[in-house]
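User: Quick sanity check before I run a bigger batch. Here is a single chain. Can you write out its predicted 3D structure?
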Amino acid sequence: GPPVAVGGANSEQLVVPAPFSNGAGTFVSEHRRKIASYVARLAYSGEGSTCTSAGPDPGRSERAPFDNFPPGLPGRMATLASHLPGGITLAARQLRIGWLRRTRLLFGWMARRPIPDDIVHRWTEPSLTIPAVRRDLEKYAATRQDRTALVRDTEALSAFAGHALVLWSPHNRVMPPAHGHRLAELIPHARYAEIEDAYVLSMLDRPAEVAAAIGSFLIDRRDPADS
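Assistant: Done. Predicted structure follows.
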């Protein structure tokens, strides 16, 4: 069948064929209206930290620097999965399909380059094969987060006396660039560094650059007594 697509503000615009041998397409079709309603809220209501197909709302980013949970469109789709029966299992199976994984609804905005299948299989295998892991993941994913507490706890980092390295990918659409600068300003002894040509998962997109930045930071902070 044609590709799975989730979009539009009403159930008539939500196209969910069933190319999955495990019956996932039938499952999603049964929850068509709930998914359509949720996607419509993402695009039009401005709940929490806004993220539409055009990316995060820069105005809201300035008003609420750390109110970005769940982060971006991928985070909101994960939240949707956690609220549907069997949604976590469905999401894990979808992540294993390369072309689907690369859409912006899943990991298209998380990694600039395709993530190898073997890595994704290692990520998803425990939740698909170990009931206890799946149970804990579902419980965690369904936890309702207090946005006020999240912002308060983040701002409490201003009391952190140690040194910190804030690595940020400035061109991603999930974690607003302004948040990286704000975080570095918040922590008294923080160093800010950017990883170019990468999205959120910079350690996968640019592993050598991430390792070099961390190595440089650790060398600079090394205790002379350890030399």
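The two ends are 62 Å apart (CA to CA).

User: Great, the batch can go ahead then.
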